[in-house]
Please model this.
Amino acid sequence: MTGPVPGAPGWDPAHPAPGRRTSPRVMLVHTVTFRQARSFVPAMLGLAAAIGSNIDPSPLGIAGLVLLVTVLSLGFAALGWWRFSYADTDSAVVVTRGLLARSVRTVPIDRVRGVEVEAPPLYRLFGLVRLRIDAAAGAVQGSEEELVVDGLRPAEADRLRARLLTRRAAPAPVPGQEPVPGAPGPAPAAGEPEEEFARFDNRWLLYSPLVGSYLAIPFAALGALSRLTDELPDRFTPDLGQPDLSRLPVLLLAVVAALLVVLLGSVIGSAVVNWGFRLVRRGGSLVAARGLLTRRQTELEIDRIRGGTLSEGVGMRLVRAARSSALVTGLGDATRRGQLLPMGPRREAWALLTRLVEDPGALRRHPPAARRRRLVRAIGSGVVVLAAGLVLTATQGWWWVAVLGGVLTVLGVPLGLGRYASLGHVTGERSFSVRSGWLVREQVVLQQRAVVGWQVRQSFSQRRASLATVTACVGAGSGGYACTDMAADEAAAFALASSGRWAGTLTPHP
Amino acid sequence: MSPSPPPPGQQPPPAGARPPVPPGPARTPAWSLSREAVSLWTVQGVLGTVVLVALAAVALLVLPDGAVDVLRWVLPPLVLLEAVLSIGVQPRLRYRVHRWEVTDEAVYTLTGWLSRTWTLVPISRIQTVDVTRGVVQQLFGLASVAVLTASSQGTVRIPHLEAAVAARVADDLARRAELVRDEAT
Model:
């Protein structure tokens, strides 16, 4: 399905040959959404204000205005379409764009980290998709590193996607053996068999209210709604009267209604993003598809997966639910792209994770000194408040500060014990794992080859308790995963067993 | 694995010397920093103290009488304590703790003074080697080496080596990283 590529051999990015254009239908999409015209709105508003008083407020005048704006928008959309082109060669993808100022952007294919195919509702109506090419370089972060090819037919998007990811289908180069330059990679993932890794059961959406980020959705929506009603002229807002909140049944009703809105909102919000989540293996990649209105397809290269995380929030632990994501080199903290299972039963999430990274076995607990340390740290702030409260009670009569301190101190006990219960580490044959956290408990399973360094830290108090914190530095995820408060005399052995022979440098002399 | 010989100007500590620090969870790297590091940290401590004294003086002058009388009694001793710690104690303690070593397979450092950090990076995973010379460092003929990997947390920093040693170590590491590099991530 690979068509002839413009100027394929000896392609010179300095003199871009005419590339491919996106589908003309995208003009309609952009006209409707005022994509290009939107940037001219401030200027138009100024203009409108200048001649505003002369506009005929009759229906005919308004219709004329709407027609004018639409035609303008169509014009801008057509210009944008006409001035945008892209070309893909063996080594790079070149995007040329700009209405007046031209910009030519060349991204080497071996710098492409991932491709996302996106189909918002309007695009689906017109049979189009949008392709996002993630080409972040080095430490540079941010969306400006993303290349967007807007409005492709699905077949062409598939071709381009396969082309950009061809390199990924090639077998991993054997260390010490240079890949033959110019050797053609295996055929792109045309009719490659798909293997299903995970299928999301839409009933799992009921877990959404237990996930913090989804719980925030209804609040954001309510905020937007209240802003909108504020903007509306008074004559459009219905007069509902003031409900009498002092009466208990009314108050209860209001609380129940608010709870329902929050619960429903988080489930709906999560459904919009995660509906029909499906993870399949296609060649050397993991492809995740999801979304109710906007369908998204993201792709991960299996070769670059170095490990994964299993996170369980407090609420999710109650119902034995969890979410899992892959740790991929070069992806940084792009959590959405690395997601393996947005939410589901813990068993499923763990099974999925251990399919990609070897299960290192059951976690080992940390010594009792670690429990003491967690407890001291958890009740510490409460004790400080309590002490301050006792002083204030004596001098100012502010007894409530002391009560607050007492409550914090008491609450600190289960918190400290919970935090200790989360701690654990284990080393398997080719992988290892560490776990920590209470509000969100996170277990990280890493391949041993992922470790690019070790950091052993011992604070003054840890030295007295014979504890140490060992951090595995990896070039994926957050960059380092700490095994907090493990026995100091096990630290070097853990590092050696969990990575290469080089970590023997840490072993203390007998 | 036998450590490479220490760079010129770096003698291993004499046999009878007291151990630099009590034994920790990991081996202590073999080599000390340049002796000049103590002077440099002392100068930094003096500079910091001067700034602090100036700030404290301004604070005491500007504050109206009677507003915070406690400060008048508390501030000077605090500043004095800080001066003793940062000039008298910290440079020597730091020098005793700080160690570094380049073995056949890895770069290894121990840093800190109250809490201690051992950092180990295998040469096969080195991505970049940086040598920096700060303004004060140049006065003492010192330079720092930073060894970077694909992980933001896996960076080995060797502060305050003699400039020639730092340059030699950086060259050597960069060359060897090129030879044994595997995937580097």
The interface with chain B takes residues 175, 304, 306, 329-330, 449, 452-460, 462-463, 468, 471, 473-476, 479-480, 488-489, 491-492, 495, 500-509 of chain A (CB under 8 Å). The longest strand of chain A covers residues 305-313.
